[in-house]
Amino acid sequence: MIEHPGESIEPESSAIQPIRLFDDPPDVDPGLVILTCANCGATMDERKCKLICRCGYFLS
Fold first, then answer.
1. Where are the domains of the chain?
2. Are strands 45-47 and 58-59 parallel, antiparallel or unpaired?
3. Which pLDDT tens digit goes with each residue over 3-22?
């Protein structure tokens, strides 16, 4: 390629882009997270002041 005076050899986009190591975390409702069983992933039932799962796991 023949270069002409005044022409630039720089790439079109010279802006530095940051490296992303991880994706952005998804927007999750914290209320739904606390109702999810840590043991099996099912939705837990609310009974008075406890959350109980059908697999036997509970939070009080």
1. 30-59
2. unpaired
3. 666 665 655 666 888 887 77
